[in-house]
Inverse folding.
Protein backbone atom coordinates (compact mmCIF):
# COMPACT_ATOMS: atom_id res chain seq x y z
CA UNK A 1 0.00 0.00 0.00
CA UNK A 2 1.35 3.37 -0.97
CA UNK A 3 -0.28 6.45 0.50
CA UNK A 4 -0.06 9.59 -1.56
CA UNK A 5 -2.40 11.76 0.46
CA UNK A 6 -3.90 15.08 -0.44
CA UNK A 7 -3.97 17.60 2.42
CA UNK A 8 -7.66 16.97 3.17
CA UNK A 9 -7.01 13.21 3.25
CA UNK A 10 -4.06 13.68 5.60
CA UNK A 11 -6.27 15.66 7.97
CA UNK A 12 -8.99 13.01 7.73
CA UNK A 13 -6.43 10.34 8.60
CA UNK A 14 -5.16 12.34 11.58
CA UNK A 15 -8.75 12.92 12.70
CA UNK A 16 -9.54 9.20 12.51
CA UNK A 17 -6.50 8.29 14.59
CA UNK A 18 -7.26 10.93 17.20
CA UNK A 19 -10.89 9.82 17.51
CA UNK A 20 -9.79 6.18 17.80
CA UNK A 21 -7.47 7.21 20.64
CA UNK A 22 -10.35 8.94 22.41
CA UNK A 23 -12.55 5.89 21.95
CA UNK A 24 -9.87 3.70 23.54
CA UNK A 25 -9.45 6.19 26.39
CA UNK A 26 -5.74 6.64 25.69
CA UNK A 27 -4.07 9.40 27.73
CA UNK A 28 -4.34 12.89 26.25
CA UNK A 29 -0.95 14.20 25.16
CA UNK A 30 -0.16 17.66 23.87
CA UNK A 31 1.50 17.98 20.48
CA UNK A 32 4.79 18.81 22.24
CA UNK A 33 4.54 15.80 24.54
CA UNK A 34 3.74 13.51 21.63
CA UNK A 35 6.53 14.92 19.44
CA UNK A 36 9.05 14.54 22.26
CA UNK A 37 7.96 10.99 22.96
CA UNK A 38 8.09 9.99 19.28
CA UNK A 39 11.57 11.46 18.98
CA UNK A 40 12.85 9.51 21.97
CA UNK A 41 11.38 6.28 20.61
CA UNK A 42 12.41 6.76 16.97
CA UNK A 43 15.80 8.48 17.12
CA UNK A 44 18.83 6.61 18.40
CA UNK A 45 19.79 7.28 22.04
CA UNK A 46 21.20 8.82 24.11
CA UNK A 47 18.69 11.61 24.68
CA UNK A 48 19.34 14.51 27.03
CA UNK A 49 17.07 17.37 28.02
CA UNK A 50 19.47 19.80 26.36
CA UNK A 51 19.62 17.70 23.18
CA UNK A 52 15.86 17.26 23.00
CA UNK A 53 15.33 20.99 23.45
CA UNK A 54 17.72 21.77 20.61
CA UNK A 55 16.43 19.07 18.26
CA UNK A 56 12.74 19.86 18.80
CA UNK A 57 13.18 23.64 18.98
CA UNK A 58 11.71 23.74 22.48
CA UNK A 59 12.95 25.52 25.58
CA UNK A 60 14.51 23.37 28.28
CA UNK A 61 11.66 24.26 30.68
CA UNK A 62 9.11 23.15 28.06
CA UNK A 63 10.98 19.85 27.65
CA UNK A 64 11.04 19.43 31.43
CA UNK A 65 7.26 20.03 31.68
CA UNK A 66 6.60 17.53 28.89
CA UNK A 67 8.90 15.01 30.56
CA UNK A 68 7.11 15.52 33.88
CA UNK A 69 3.84 14.47 32.23
CA UNK A 70 5.35 11.59 30.24
CA UNK A 71 7.24 10.32 33.26
CA UNK A 72 4.04 10.53 35.32
CA UNK A 73 2.38 8.29 32.73
CA UNK A 74 5.44 6.00 32.89
CA UNK A 75 6.02 6.48 29.14
CA UNK A 76 9.57 7.81 29.65
CA UNK A 77 12.03 7.95 32.53
CA UNK A 78 14.90 10.22 33.47
CA UNK A 79 18.16 9.15 35.04
CA UNK A 80 21.44 10.88 35.73
CA UNK A 81 24.11 10.43 33.06
CA UNK A 82 26.90 8.41 34.69
CA UNK A 83 29.46 9.99 32.36
CA UNK A 84 28.31 13.58 33.05
CA UNK A 85 26.47 13.99 36.35
CA UNK A 86 25.19 17.43 35.23
CA UNK A 87 23.24 15.81 32.42
CA UNK A 88 19.96 13.89 32.57
CA UNK A 89 19.29 11.02 30.17
CA UNK A 90 15.77 10.39 28.90
CA UNK A 91 14.94 6.73 28.35
CA UNK A 92 12.14 4.63 26.92
CA UNK A 93 9.89 2.40 29.01
CA UNK A 94 7.90 -0.73 28.27
CA UNK A 95 4.65 1.11 29.02
CA UNK A 96 5.57 3.84 26.53
CA UNK A 97 6.41 1.24 23.89
CA UNK A 98 3.04 -0.43 24.38
CA UNK A 99 1.24 2.94 24.09
CA UNK A 100 3.04 3.83 20.85
CA UNK A 101 2.44 0.38 19.40
CA UNK A 102 -1.29 0.75 20.06
CA UNK A 103 -1.23 4.22 18.52
CA UNK A 104 0.67 2.91 15.48
CA UNK A 105 -1.87 0.10 15.07
CA UNK A 106 -4.69 2.65 15.12
CA UNK A 107 -2.89 4.77 12.53
CA UNK A 108 -2.31 1.75 10.28
CA UNK A 109 -5.98 0.77 10.53
CA UNK A 110 -7.12 4.32 9.77
CA UNK A 111 -4.79 4.41 6.74
CA UNK A 112 -6.17 1.11 5.47
CA UNK A 113 -9.72 2.39 5.86
CA UNK A 114 -8.82 5.62 4.05
CA UNK A 115 -7.08 3.69 1.27
CA UNK A 116 -10.09 1.40 0.80
CA UNK A 117 -12.59 4.27 0.80
Amino acid sequence: MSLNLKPAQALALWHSVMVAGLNRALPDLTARQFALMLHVYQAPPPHTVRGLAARLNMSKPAVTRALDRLEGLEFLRRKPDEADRRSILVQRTVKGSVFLREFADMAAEAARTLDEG
